[in-house]
């Protein structure tokens, strides 16, 4: 058996797999070359050898970089965990010292969670010069695939969809808050139901058609007037600076937006569901000391928020109908 492995290894330069992992992560030959401290030509040449070795295009060109083929996505599921194990073996991976380490940790989360958590994460790592936090936009249904492909180290979302190869932990519970510009809508707070229904709304939605607020209103035989929609909570909050409208956003981000933009905050005038935000990672990363440090950092950040803008941590993950992602 050992002879077979040695024979196979002689056929392939294992350094090519490092280039493959960088291309999966960066989605760009130029950025991968920068991350690996190689020339762009060297990475292009390695990609050519990878294509020959695996008999597949692996990455196709796009206007913004490269995109993996289905074959590359499947390879990444097996290559990324193997590289993590090899990395730990050759770097004394049973220890991780964030004070001396040089490491970029990539988190996948939506913009409302980024607004609530990233400033605290940056503050917590300010004294660690070699630690960098990167964020990629993600939603609950995309996280599992991003983890499988090695695009993110840790995902954070409300009730994230996942499979048996993933692990997770609850971080905190959240709910819904209304935002509006008091200079354009001089309304008393807390908002009355009449005021809530009388004024236009900005909807945050993936499809631009409907959000959880509409479900709650419909169950009561009510309706609201939505004048515009966006896919980002921060975008909706920014628009309120110039638009006399209401937006219903996650409670954990509302105070951040309100403080930055001078918006008024009010509890919704009707009962709204709460949901649990949790962290998700690939099972192969569980015993990685660096990843364990990252998880502990995120949990600590979520456990010790600023005043009133982030709910206390949850003790359970809740049911399947946890209404993740607020007004989406």
UniProtKB/TrEMBL annotation:
PROSITE patterns membership: HTH_LYSR (PS50931)
SUPFAM superfamilies: Periplasmic binding protein-like II, Winged helix' DNA-binding domain
GO molecular-function terms, A-Z: DNA binding
A Pfam family: HTH_1
Residues covered by region (Disordered): 302-328
Domain HTH lysR-type residues, every copy: 12-69
Chain coiled-coil ranges: none
Domain of life: Bacteria
Alphabetical UniProt keywords: DNA-binding, Transcription, Transcription regulation
PANTHER family: HTH-TYPE TRANSCRIPTIONAL REGULATOR LEUO-RELATED, TRANSCRIPTIONAL REGULATORY PROTEIN
Protein family (similarity comment): Belongs to the LysR transcriptional regulatory family.
Protein name: LysR family transcriptional regulator
Organism, as annotated: Streptomyces doudnae
